[in-house]
Write a structure and sequence with these properties.
It is a single chain. Helix content is 2%, strand content 69%. The chain contains one helix and eleven strands, in the order E-E-E-H-E-E-E-E-E-E-E-E. It has one helix spanning 58-62; strands spanning 2-12, 21-34, 43-54, 64-67, 72-75, 83-95, 99-123, 126-148, 153-166, 180-189, 192-201. Strands 1, 2, 3, 4, 5, 6, 7, 8, 9, 10 and 11 form an eleven-stranded mixed sheet that branches. The radius of gyration is 22 Å and the shape is globular. The two termini are 38 Å apart.
């Protein structure tokens, strides 16, 4: 059994008579690790519960102008509240003589989730986006496995998927990464190692 906690305090005092903001936020987590006796330590089950907080960044609150790296004209929002999330994740890890694998499922219920919402307008040749917040849910899975095909060659596969949606409407959140599959082979002989991989994104 593991537990932890954190307290954060942040104060933003912008110039030009912009609104000052102060945040006092706390986070805590509780974790449980189970090793079934019948599995002889070859299977581990991990469960984590967490209450997390995140206050808005300086850019999310006050930025106003083009952001070429994001290909957008961004408008901050000094009315943003801090995000508060309640979530859990469940992981199962297993190993055998020639394989190792891990599967994880996670769920996060987030109040006042902050994201960038396109306004439909354009400025300085960039689409205008404004930072807003709404209650949202993020769910996803992650899986990884390694299999030793021979003493020198190992195959590995990784899969991850995240879904984000607004709680009220069920509409998808913007900027959520797509599903991804990564497969590869590795050859290792003494100190020499070579390999390759391919990735599929949808």
């Amino acid at each position: 059994l593991q537990f932890g906690g954190r307290f954060d305090r942040a104060k933003f005092t912008p110039e030009q008579n912009r609104r000052e903001r102060t945040f006092n936020e706390w986070s805590a987590s509780l974790g449980l690790l189970l090793k079934p006796q019948a599995a002889n330590d070859d299977v581990v089950i991990a469960l984590n519960l967490a209450r997390a907080s995140r206050y808005p960044s300086l850019e999310e609150l006050y930025y106003f102008g083009p952001h070429p790296g994001n290909l957008s004209f961004e408008i901050g929002n000094d009315e943003l509240a801090a995000e508060h999330a309640l979530g859990f994740d469940l992981s199962v890890r297993a190993r055998g003589a020639r394989f190792e694998g891990e599967f994880t499922f996670f769920y996060n219920d987030i109040n006042d989730y902050i994201f960038r919402q396109p306004t439909g307008a354009f400025q300085d040749s960039f689409p205008v986006v404004r930072n807003i917040e709404a209650d949202s849910v993020l769910t996803g899975i992650e899986a990884h496995g390694d299999v030793k095909l021979t003493n020198e060659i190992t195959a590995e596969v990784t899969y991850d998927m995240v879904r984000g949606e607004l709680k009220d409407s069920g509409d998808p959140l913007p900027r959520i990464p797509p599903q991804r599959v990564l497969a590869g082979l590795t050859y290792q002989k003494n100190a020499f190692q070579a390999g390759g991989s391919a990735q599929i994104v949808s």
